[in-house]
# Entry
Amino acid sequence: MIQVMKKIREYIASIRRINNNRVFETIYVFCIALITSLFWILGTMKIVPYYSSLVALTVIAGVSLLLLNDFKYFIPCVISFIFANPDGYKSDAFPIPMLICGFSLVGVLLIFTACNFKKLSFKNKNKSFIALIYFAIFSFVPLIYHNLITSEVKTLVFVYFSYILYLGIYVFFLANMNEDSKNITFKSCEMIALICAFECIAKVILMHQEDPARPLLSMWYFLGWGLCNEAGIMICFGLPFLFMKTKSFSKWYQYIFFIIELALVIVGMLVTTSRGTYLFGSILIVILTILSFVYSKHKIKYSLSIIISIIILLIGIELMFGLKDFVLEIIEEVFEKKLDSNGRYTLFDTAVKLWNDGLPSILFGKGWVAERLKTMTYYGMQEGYMVYHSTFFETLACYGAIGVFVLIFHFYEKYKTLFKLEKFECFVLIVGFVLVDLYGMIDNTYHFYYYMIPLIILMSSLDAAKRDEKAIIL
# Structure
C-alpha cells in the first residue's frame, strides 16, 4: 500500500512538471473553449441537457486543481463557465442546475484556497477593489426605500448580490494568483472572442435552417447567457488579446492560426447584427492592426496574414451571399433605422427622472430593479427589470450620484493596472478598454455579469503580475 501511494505521488509530481509548459497551457485553454462551444451547441439543439457544459467545466476545474495544484487552471474554467449556458433565465423560478454548478465552483475555490492557505499572499500586489467594496455594500441601500422584489419575480433578488460576487472573485483570485497567472488569463480572454463568435455563427445557422427565407442579418436572438449584441460586446472585449500575441510570432503556423481566428471573429461580429459592434469593432480592428504592425518583429509575415485574412473573408462572403448583396443587406437590415437611437433616448430620459426622484435616489439611486416591466426574454415575454443600455445612465439610475463618482474611481483603478505592462501590451489594452467603455455608453457592459466577471479576473491578474522592466514609467 505504501509503495502504491509512493508511486501515485511520483506520478502526480511528474504530471505537475507541465505547469511551466506554455504549450500545454495554450492547449488547455483551447480545449476548455472547445468543450464550452461544443456543449453549448449541443445544449442549444437539445441533444444534451443545457447544463451539461456547466457540469463539464465544474468537473474539469476540480480535477485540474486537484491533479496539477496550480490555480491558473481554474481561470479559463470560470471565464468559459459564463458563456457555456445555452438556456435562458426565468424571473419566477431559480435555475437550480446552474446554481448547483455555480456553488460547486465556489466550493472548489474555497477548498483549494483552504488547502493552500500558507501560500496565499497579497504582498507586492496592487489592490484595485475600493470601488467594488462600495458597490457591494451600497447595492442594498435602495431596497430600504424602493423595493420592487415580490414572489412573482423572486429570482431578481440575485442581481443585488452581483457586486458581492465580483468582490469575492477579485479577493480570492488575487490571493491565489501569482505573476504567472497573467499569461493564461490573457489566453482565456482571447477565447471569449472565439467562443462568442462561434456561438453567434452557430445560432444564426440554426435559425436560418428553420426559416431559410429570412435574411441572415435580420436576426436578433438570445444565446442563453445573453443577447447577440452582448456577444458583440464580448467579442470586442476579447479582440485585443487576439492581436496581442502577434508581436512574438515567428513561425508561419502561428500566423495561419491567427488568420483562422481573426476570420472567425470578424464573421461572428457580422452576424451579431449589432450596429455598436460594427462601429466599435471596426475601429478596434483597424487600430489594433496598425499597432501590431508597428510592434511586430516580422512585419512582412504579419502584413501577409492580415491581407490573407481579408481575402479569405471577402471570398467567403462572395461565395455565401455575393459581396454586393451582402453590403446592401447590412445597409437594409442592420442600418434600416440609420443612426436612430432605437429607443435609447427614452431610456436615458427615464433613468434621469428616476434618479431625480428625491434625495435618497439622487445619492444612492433606485437599485438594480429600478423599474419592473414586461420584457422579451429567452422564454418570451416575462416580468423583469429595466436596463438602460448605458454605463452612465445605468449607474445613475441604480447607484445614484455617489455611484457615478465611484465608477469614475473604478476607471482610474482599472486603467492604472495597465501601466505595469510592457508598452505594446499596455497600448493594446488601453485601446481595447477605451473602445469597449465607449461602447458601454450606448449598450450593456458595466454591472452585468458576463462583462464584469472576466474584467475582474483580468484586473486581478494584472494586480498580481510584476511590473515589466519595459513598462511605461509614470
Observations:
- The chain has a mean pLDDT of 86.
